[in-house]
Amino acid sequence: MKEVGTPFNNRVGKFFRGIKSRDFLVFLFFFMVSCFFWIVLAIKDPVEKEFLIPVKVIHIPDNVIIRDGFDSLNVTVSVKDNGYNLLGYDLNHVKPIEVNFKHYAKGDDGKLTISNYDLKKEVRGKLASSSQVISIKPEKLEIFFDYGDSKMIPVSLKNVDIIPDYRFVIDEAKVTPNYVKAYATAARLKELDSVWTNFLEIDNVTGKETKKVKLKRINGVKLEPDVVAVNVIADALIEDTVDVPIIMVNVPDSIQLHLTSEKVKVSFVTGARKKGQFTAMDFKVVTDFKSMNMESLQKLLPVILEKYPSSEVMRPKLEFNQVDYLILR
Fold first, then answer.
1. DSSP labels for 150-198?
2. Residue 18: pLDDT above 70?
3. Phi, psi of 28 (to 5 degrees)
């Protein structure tokens, strides 16, 4: 059987079988080997490179308030070493320098100072023995702080926007924990009555949902914890009804009035979990004698829904809006 191949495959096969092409492959092989050895020799030479290394202040007491609003910093370190080690620092990153607050915060001046000497010592501990630290910027680190009092403060949900699915209603929304500890000066704590979360929107809620959110930062105040959980429960909307007595108001003592219907059915929409929990005591329906037109032939009084639990009930509707009456002399 004759072997069939594409024109491109045939051309490639002829190229690699040719004498000139074999010479080219030999040349290419030795060129790549030369490049490899050149790179190996090049990265052995010492070079200087800058790295950004994070500095973390650890073991900060609870009653310490950082005035500048941070508890971690960065230093720029210029390091001289062979290419092997510098490449390793680039790929693996240098581990953060951890500074013990209690070791460096000495005295009552409210200032923590990490000298250039201490920074270099800490940096050298993170590098290979062959690495030389040329410079560190800034030359020293300073953190200003205060020792403060503390008190428990409630967390407000005013900055949280909760939007249920159109078939549901929000049955419960709470924050955990609902109180956090605030550290600040006595004067600053006196001004605080609540703390807010950062803006959070939870939409299309159809059941149980939990979202974590950071508390809104307050200058000069340290909050613990600074992250809370917002727990939301949505309930399916259903229709419910309650029979409510009609109360007559502004009826003169000299007149005895009798309504042909003493009760009216109030229909409304609420959550399924609340079905059957509402009674006539939760509503108030009235008819006002003063609205009667004695000269009119129409013997009907308007029926008005005056009160209902608006936070738990939606779209309340009366079975009828007018009621007939009899005046008994």
1. EEEEEEE-TTEEEEE-TTEEEEEEEEESSEEEEEE-HHHHHH-S-EEBP
2. no
3. -65, -40
